[in-house]
Structure formats: C-alpha cells, structure tokens
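Limitations
The structure tokens in this dataset are predictions for the assembled complex, not deposited experimental models. Users should treat interface geometry with appropriate caution, especially where small molecules or nucleic acid strands are included. An illustrative entry is reproduced here so readers can see what is and is not provided.
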Amino acid sequence: MTAPAPSLLRRTMRVANGRAGAVALVVIALFALAAPLALPDPATQFDIVDGALRPPSAIHPFGTDHLSRDVLSRVANGARISLAVAVIAVALSITLGAVVGLVAGFFGGVTDTIVMRVVDGAMAIPRLFLLLLLVAAWDRLPLAALILVIGATGWLGTSRLVRAEVLRLREAEFVRSAQALGAGARRVMFRHLLPNTIGPLAVAAMLGVGDVILLEAGLSFLGLGVRPPTPSWGGMILEGKDVLQAAPWVSLFPGLAIVATVLAINLFGEALHRAAESRSS
Amino acid sequence: MSPLLEVRDLRVTFPDRATGGVHPVDGVSFELARGETLALVGESGCGKSLSALALLRLVPPPGRIASGSAVVLDGTDVLALDDKSLRKVRGRRIAMIFQDPMTSLNPVFTVGDQITEVVHAHFKVPKQEARDRALKLLNEVGIPDAASRLDAYPHQLSGGMRQRVMIAIALAGEPELLIADEPTTALDVTVQAQILELLDQLRATHGMSMLLITHDLGIVAGRADRVAVMYAGQIVEQASTAALFAKPSHPYTQGLFASVPRLTGPVGHLMPIPGTVPPPSAWPSGCRFRTRCPIVHARSAEMPPMLQVGPEHSMRCWLAEDQQ
Amino acid sequence: MARWLARRLLLAALTVAIAITLAFFLMRLAPGDPLSRLGDERPMPAAELAGLRARYGLDQPLLSQYATFVVAATGGDFGRSIHYGRPVREIILDRLPASVLLGGGALLLTMLGGALLGAMQALRRDSPLDRTAGVVSLAAYATPSFWLGLVLAWLVGIEWRLLPVGGFRDPLLAPDAPWMTQVVDLLRHLALPLLTLTVVSIGAVMRYQRTAMLEALAQPFVAAARARGLSERRIRWRHALRTSLFPIVTLLGLWLPVLAAGSVFVESVFAWPGLGSLAAEAVGTRDYPLLMGVTLLVAVLVVLGGLLADLAYAALDPRVRPA
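Predicted assembly:
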C-alpha cells in the first residue's frame, strides 16, 4: 500500500531534474526569507538619493524603479507575497478538492452524478474567467479574500483526480475488510482512502503552486490581484510596463523571478510525478 | 549441402549495475537446413525469444549482440550487414511471427495496408498488383471472405484471424526462413492446432525453413524435425525430435516432459519443475541448472560442455560422461 | 453513431447550461449589483440610477433575473453593454475575427509545432537535444505570457524596431491600399502576439507528444514492423507518429481554456482588438454584461472543443469509432 513519504521524496531526488528543482526551490525560499533583511527596505526608499529608473549597478544589481526603489529588494519582498499566496491558496483548493472527490467517489450514485456534472460545468469556464467574474466587483480586494477566491477556483481538477482514485480503491480488499469490520463512512474515507491518494495529491499540489504563481501574477498584472504598494511580481511587471523603453529592468527581473520559480517547481513536480507513478505501478 | 542458417556462439549482453553485464543469451549455436523445422524449447526467461530477436538484430536496447557471435544466412553474416542490406534480410529472407497478434499489428491501419506495405518494401510492384498479392495471401492463410477483410482493422478480427493475418504479412516477403515465436500462446486451445497445422503446411508448400519457438513440448512432436532445449541462456540438449522423445536425457528436459499434460495416463501425474528460471544476474556458476536439478552431481560446480549422448543427440550435462 | 452523437450533444448542452448558471450566480456574489459602482466615477441622481436599474431589469428578484437572462442568452442575446451602450452580441461579433485569427493561428502552430518537436525529442531520446528541449519546454510553460509579450515588444519592437508592437493595422495605412500591402501589414501586427501565445502554450504539447511518441515507439508493432524490413523512416513517421497523435487530439478540449486565458493577457499587452482584450477592458470598466457575454462564449467554445476532440479521436482511431 502506501510507502512512507520519505521514500517518495527520495525517489524524486534520484532524478537529476528533481534535484535541480529542489535545490533551486530552497535557494528561492531562502532568498525570499533572508534577502529582505539584508536589502534596503523599499517602503522607506522614496528619497531621490539613488535616483529613479537607474540601470543595474553594484549598489542596485537589478536597478531602481520609477519611485527610486531597489528592484532586487522588491523582487525579494514580492517573492514572499507571491509564494505565500500560492501556497495558502493551493492548500485550500487541495483540501476542498480532496473532500469533494472523496465524498463523490465514496457515495457514488446521485451525489456523485450531481457533483461531477457541476464540476464539468465549472471546468468549462477557464479559471481566469471565473476569477475575473469574482474579483471584478471589488475595488480593493483584501489579500486574504484574494487567496480565498484563488483557492476556491482551484479544486475542480483535484476533485476529479481524487474521485478517480477512490473509485479505483473502493472495491479494494483493505477497504472491503475495513467496512466488514464496521468502520463508518468517515473512517473509511479519511483513514483508508485518503492516505492512498497522497501521491497524486502531492503532485497536484506541487504543480498547482506553479500554476497559481502564474495566475496571481496575471491578476496582479491586470490590476486585479495584489495591490500596490504591497510588492508582487505581477504588479511589478505592470509598474514597469509604462517605463519599458527607459527602464526595461523594472519589468524584466520580476518576470525572470517568476520563470525561475515556476520552472523549479515544475522540474521538482515532474520528478515527483514520476516517482509517484513508478511506485503505484 | 551447407545449412541455410548457421548460428555460432550467439551472445546477447545487457548492462547490469551489480555485475557490469549479463548474458541472457550465452553462447547459443545451432544449424538449420533448408526445409527443416527446428523447435527451440524452454520456459519463459530462458532466452529463446531473445535469441530469435537477435537473429534479426532486433535486440531491444540497451541490450546488444556481443562480438564473436555469428549469424550466417546462406554464406552472409547477418550481424555484419549495413542497415540497408539488413532491411533486405528482414521480412524478405527471414520473416517473424510474434506471440501476440493484437499488439504486433498496428491498430490504426487496415489489414490490407499492413500487407501491401511489406510487399512494396521488398518488391517493385504497382499498387494494384500489391493488393492482389495481399488478397491471395489472405486466401492462402485461410481467411474467409478475404476481399472484404482487406479493409478491416485488426480489432475487428478474432484472435485466430489476427494470427493468420500476421502469417500472411510474414509470407508477403516470400522468406526462406520463418521464425514463429510462441505463435499460438495467446490463442484459444482449439485455434492453436489450426494455426500450427497451417504453418506446417505453408512451410512445406513454400519450401521454407522454420524456427518454432515454444515453451510447450507437446506441440513439437510431429511438427519439428529437430529440437533444441534452452535453459538459462544456453542450449542444454539438442537432438532429432524422435531421439529426444525416445530418450530425453538432460534432467531439465526430463522435467519439461514431466510437466506436459498428456491425454492418456492418470490425471495428477503432472510434475512441474519446482521454481522458475532465475534472472541472468542470479545464474549459478558451473552447471546453470544445478539450483533446480533433482540430481546432485560431483562436478556440478563446473560448467559442462555439450556432450554426445547418441547419434545427433547431445546435452550439456555431466551425466552424459558417466553413461559412456 | 447517431445515438452516440445525440447523447454527447445532450451532455454538452447540459454542461453549458450548468456553466451559464454558475457564471450568473458567481457574478452576483459581488456586493451590490452591476450598476452600484456606476456612481463611483461621476455622481448620479438616485432617480436616474433607478431608471437604469429598471432598464437593465435589475429591480427584479434575482431568480427572475436569472430566468430572463437564460432565456435571452439561449437566443444569443447577452444584453446591453453598460460601457458602450450597444448590444453585447454586436461588440463580440466585432471583436471575434481578430481573436479567431490570433487564437486559431496559435492553436494551429502549437499543435503542429508541439507534435513535431515532441516527436523529434522522443526519436532522439536522452540526447543533448532532447534534454535541452525538455528544459526549454518546461521554461516556456513557466513563462507568464504578458511578461514574454512585454519582453518581445521591448526587444523586437522598441530596441530593434523590426515589428509593430500594438494594434491590428497601421493607422497610417490608406484604407484603399492594395490588398497585398494590407495582408503584409496585418501579418506584421500579428507576428509578436502570435509568437508570444504560441511559445507559452507549446511547451505542454511538446511534453505530451514526447511521452506519447515514446510509448508508441515501445509498442510491439514497431518491433514487428522492423522485423518486416520496413524503412526506419516509415516506421517512425507512419507507424509510431500516427498512433501517438491521439493524446494530442484529446488535449484539444483542455487547450482552449489555456488559449482563452492566454489571449486575455497577450491581447491586452499588444492592444490586439480581440475578445481577450475585450474581457480585460470589461473588467476595468466593470461592464458585467460584456464580461458575462465573453465568458459564456468561451465556455461554449471550450465545451465544443471537447466535443470536437471526441469526434476527431473517433475519426482517427478505428478502435473507438462508434459503429
């Protein structure tokens, strides 16, 4: 049945891409945590000492933006926001998806039909459009609400995944015997079925974080996500858009940060996927 | 007369992390005369299918044929051919039928497509002529209503019909040697006999030689001229079919015979050899069968050579020496 | 065949109906109604606002608004744009050609290019080329479309002055210019948005195709074809490629949402007058009927794409062709 989690991680690390992704992620996380402590605080930097729109130099490796803030420092601060939003939102949607999938798959019948039809219908609307419908009405969406709506639109695929796993496992020996021993529905679902979906869920969560980083950046770029002055990568690219000709670095570096982070996540996620697959087969 | 096919010291190497390299086929030698049928018999994992693939240089990577091996077809060494000349051997001079006709046929092309494709690959003929040949071949392998089957897809045919199609494809190149790798294993028992009968008949009418690979000694009698028994990458006993059936000599061959279900005799007489063929990395030194052999021989730690047991009858067992 | 199709169509219609319902109520989760923010920009007398509410039917109970909306939407009427004051359908039809050109072009390039590149990777499995393409495709998948659009606009458009970076046609071009000139002008404007949209979506197709091709190459019928003396070229590009294309085709249904989302960003960056930039504008001006109209059109396209994928699959694979 389920091998202990460390073995899944160890298999993942055996793949070169998995190692590269993991190392990059650790570096990015350290950068997000530690760099803002060492770098000038962009919030207190509205002076003209360093000058606005300065190209990259020894003092400002990524240059400065239109408010003379250090772009490197803003990228580091933005990493905190973007990563936090993504991780919390994905935790939310994975939980939701797992519960919906478990319930639909375990109970089957009418419950399953109705739930899955609704999921089909919702999946016909691209997630971005779901979010546009949800966030357009608010003028200033608080960060917590943003995380909530991103999380609430991300569980559809996960629920399908978990449901499929549950359907596969429902007839398995160990589930049958647990039921024969009188285990209740909740116990069977959460003690017996859920642990067996951990592998696919871990993969979905990992790749989901990458997707949400891109999604949040997109919303912020449209001016609908994280609002300035709170730094976010997407918002910084938006700010740099108007000074693209004079100071391309303002947009360039946060974008590179997104590519590097999502690439690292996907490298690791893909290796994780392969590790989970090879174990189940 | 020189043999059609001469295989000498065929060895297939696969890389192996622990030992540096294993030889699932380890020094196989045999000859095949024109018009002759040789049966290559052994349990799964003994290396018989891999040997057959090696004859056409189809060993799946990372495996490769070790240097020193020779596969001589009518005077030319197949292992030394360039790609272009090799293609003129594959399908054209040596054709092969695989175990599972479902997966060996491409599901998205019609039966006719897959036969004419081979015709076009080996003969310069116009389209219509190729189609006519395909039709003739389908008739020859006993497919009813052949004209309409040309446009059928593999999944629309029964297992037995698919194997007949495979045979038609093999015949399309008009080969001199037909390799049939477990041609009936995936089929129903009733169909098995029909297919074997068909193969034997086609071999005779086309004057082909046949290498029949099987795990089932029961289908060998009456169809093969000679039998080679394989175990753990080596041929362990080789004899004319009559001699082998009269006096199976190697303990492994005797074990195989004991496990063949017979129509006569008491039920429950089946005595399969305990265990399975170990993987190549776990083959013992010396005699490879000694881990499963009911006889403990004083010299089993040494690898026995092929020793004569009778006229045209040899085996790889020290017992042969004791008998003499 | 007819029964299968009827069933499939019915299911598609149901999915669209559920999508419409969800979209309608999701939007109404927002505080106030679509007109309540209208007063933010310019003060408006309460009586005028009430009149507008009545005009848009917003004074009715929510459920009856829903019923009216569904009935109208079924007939292709998505109401009137608040910002433009014109019927939503007209605006969408105006913007549709540009989106079809960009989205369709990107879809075509993504599918063909992705299938070809992925297959080539599989044929040179684990070679430096395969590894490089693997990382590049993952990086492309990790690249935000709007950022790539900006970088390309900056490099190609601003620094090198090779291509226009915005709009659909040169405003200085005479309306009666020769058609060749007009086509070239259109293609020059199309180039950067098309490239951007293709790059960000091709990575995933490449990866799917590579896996599918590797699976196809490992099939016994490939070895069997080799044993028959067929040329390597024929085995690869006829036997293996043909059977490896099914996963890509089934992806069609999954691709349209990706392209639709990508279009919102790419069209916005390049001021391409399609439905994506229209959706972004509608969000900016809080033009709910317009946003709703575009969303529903996208949902219908996505469902149709899934349907089409099923049909294409059946046409390609004789095994699943319904009798």
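Some entries come with short summary sentences. For this one: Residues 12-42+67-280 of chain A form a domain with the MetI-like fold fold (CATH 1.10.3720.10).
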